[in-house]
Amino acid sequence: MEIQTIRKTPEARSAAQLPDPDGARAGFSWEQAREMLDGLPGGGLNIAHEAVDRHARGAGATRPALIWLGRDGDRREITYARLADDASRFAGVLARHGLGPGDRLYLLAGRVPELYTAALGALRAGLAVTPLFAAFGPEPIRMRMEIGAANVLVTTAALYRRKVAEWRTELPSLKLVIVIDDAAPEGCAAWTTEMAAAQKLEDCAATDPEDTALIHFTSGTTGRPKGVIHVHQAVLAHALTGRYALELAPGVRYWCTADPGWVTGTSYGLISPLVNGATMIVDEAEFDVARWYRILDEEAVEVWYTAPTAIRRLMRAGKKAAAGHDFTKLRHLASVGEPLNPEGVVWGEEVFGRPFHDTWWQTETGAIMIANTAAMDIQPGSMGKPLPGITAGILRRTDDDALEECGPGETGELALRPGWPSMMRGYLGEEARYRKAFDEGWYLSGDLAQRDTEGFFWFVGRADDLIKSAGHLIGPFEVESALMEHPAVAEAAVIGLPDETAGEVVRAYVALNPGHEPSADLEQDIRGLARKRLGPAVAPREVSFRDNLPKTRSGKIMRRLLKARELGLPEGDTSTLETEDKPAPTPQGGTA
Ligand code: 6R9
Question: Fewest C-beta in 10 Å: which of 58, 156, 279, 314?
């Protein structure tokens, strides 16, 4: 189909929070943007204070902060005053256990109100917060809690029993486990008992803007997952980008479908909407076509932030599935996490009367960097333009290993000039890895992209082997390590193969140890082990047997060669496959 520029009406343009992104950039400074925040006495800054306390003390007190939709039909409205109250009480729970600044709290639960209370309470008490996916298996959970030396875990009894209990004693840093349910397993404290026994922590911890607030784990191509450090100051970027890219404002009914285990569900499913005084819809249930249309309609959602995998699944269900619903309240639709096909953008217009607005960012950037804002005309398929305060470039390496900017339409690595408030401050315990992400004053994103003559950015693919499956960023190494634990497996290689709905699916290739023969039973057994260890979101969909896997002379598995072969693509310049620290000069097929 022929995809044309989607032009915004003058009314839409003037109603937008950001009149003209190119114009707004010129007069913009982060210093001035600080007016959006309140701040603590003495120059301190705390995300929880900005997100709830200040609204709870003012005109926003009785406004719903969170509308919670339970899996089984419960519906609860929690006002800003109530949320601030609960968070202060939970901060008191932590203080009562002697926990405070310097300690680390992990969250492992579904999207229940306590998760939001715990995150805000911990920030208020000065702890660093790490949300994990409840769908993770025990292995990724344990690895992330070890790397971060977790001190407190908030979870459910079932998740604790299934995923933590077995190895808990091997993590000495973990002093306290609080389960949200009433009946706590041995060695755990119960949420209601703790909350009843605690005093509210009246004063917010006097955190400095540069104190660690959030640690989000993201995958790397090699080695362990990376703990990305974000500071309280990041809240300024959450505030501003939420307003400009998502049209958030006081009272706006907003639904972010992302789980807080993913950075999107924390930056834009918790902090940004609250800082902007919006009302967030939180749905406990997993994706379901009929349920989602009903929520958009019945909850009168005005701003919706979702992901291409979900959009594709809705598209697949057909337009009929949306029939009979009223979407007239919906003012702004946005997407993140994977390439948004032009068809998806246009489909938004057809079904909701509004196009989807693609946004681009990463765990490392902490907030939206490039976006199609409400006032902009949309080039379907483009990620949009850098927001005010953000400088982006497309770079390539010269023969003498320097960086230079590419011309319009040329593919290179998408890079950003550091300096915005939510830029990561480090990878936990991995200074060298952190430093490697920067060169010549640029942060190198690991994505390949192009910029056109009008300044729109277009995603091309990843420069490395990371896999994006249904929005999850998956490190092949972590999956390979789990496969290697199977006694029959001698070697494993994991790649992403294109998939119509999930974008990419995880596919594993294994070579067997002597004495083992390929069979359907063995395949199932290996896949079963991976699923148990890693959880369904990360485990390979399929495992194929190979006599041997392509390797470099130094013994590194050449995932990209495997992928090129699998997809029947040219194998390209294999010299680039030997190192993992340099982007390949050309995009790899199948990822865009
Ligand atoms: C927020 C988030 C980051 C990687 C990123 C890129 C991919 C994100 C995208 C996109 C194409 C977009 N990605 N947004 N690709 N178009 N609009 O996704 O963080 O999980 O760290 O993933 O996701 O490859 O580098 P994270």
Answer: 58
> Is the distance from the beta carbon of residue 267 to the nearest atom of ligand 1 less than 6 Å?
no
Listed by start position, the domains of the chain span 10-451, 466-547
Q: State CA 296 to chain mean position distance.
A: 22
Give residue 590's region: left, alpha or beta (phi > 0; psi -120 to 50). left
As a dihedral over the C-alpha atoms of residue 38, residue 357, residue 316, residue 588, rounded to 10 degrees, the angle is -110
Q: What is the DSSP string of 263-290?
A: HHHHIIIIIHHHHTT-EEEEE-S---HH
Question: Measured between alpha carbons, how far is 54 from 85 in angstroms, rounded to an integer?
Answer: 12
- Name the pTM for this structure: 0.91
- What pLDDT digit, counting tens, does each position of 185-231 carry? 999 999 999 999 999 999 999 999 999 999 999 987 777 899 999 99
Ligand 1 in reach of 366 Cβ (< 6 A): no
Residue 391 Cα to ligand 1 midpoint, Å, equals 17
pLDDT of 219: 86
CATH of domain 10-451: 3.40.50.12780
Residue 559: which residues within 8 A CB-CB, separation 6 or more?
A: 465, 476, 493, 494, 495
Whether residue 577 is predicted with pLDDT greater than 80 in this model: the reply is no
Query: Ligand 1 in contact with 358 (CB < 6 A)?
Result: yes
Residue (of 151, 152, 88, 179) closest to 125 by Cα position: 88
Q: Which of 345, 459, 462 to mutate to test the pocket of ligand 1 (most atoms within 8 A of CB)?
A: 459
- How would residue 274 be classed by pLDDT, with cut points 50, 70 and 90? very high
Cα Rg of the chain (Å, integer): 23
Among 473, 474, 588, the mutation site with the greatest number of ligand 1 atoms within 8 A of its Cβ is 473
* Token representation of residue 276: 């902007």
What is d(CA 560, CA 550) in angstroms, rounded to the nearest whole number?
9
Distance 264 CA to ligand 1 centre (A): 10
Of the given ranges (116-125, 217-226, 514-523, 524-533), which has the lowest mean pLDDT?
217-226
Residue 571: is its pLDDT beyond 90? no
Query: What tokens were used for 127?
Result: 């702890």
How many Å apart are CA 293 and CA 351, to the nearest integer? 11
| CB of 263 sitting under 6 A from ligand 1 | yes
Q: How far is the CA of 362 from the centre of ligand 1 (A)?
A: 5
CA of residue 82 to ligand 1 center, whole Å: 34
In the numeric block, the tokens 């899996």 are attached to 71
Residue pair 282/269 in contact (Cβ under 8 Å)? The answer is: yes
Q: What is the pLDDT of residues 349-397, one digit of tens each?
A: 999 999 999 999 999 999 999 999 999 999 999 999 999 999 999 999 9
Verify whether ligand 1 is closer than 6 Å to residue 336 (CB atom). Answer: yes
- Find the angle CA(496)-CA(370)-CA(470) to the nearest 5 degrees: 25
The fold of the 466-547 domain, in CATH, is GMP Synthetase; Chain A, domain 3 (3.30.300)
Q: In this structure, are residues 355 and 371 in contact, taking their beta carbons and an 8 Å threshold?
A: no
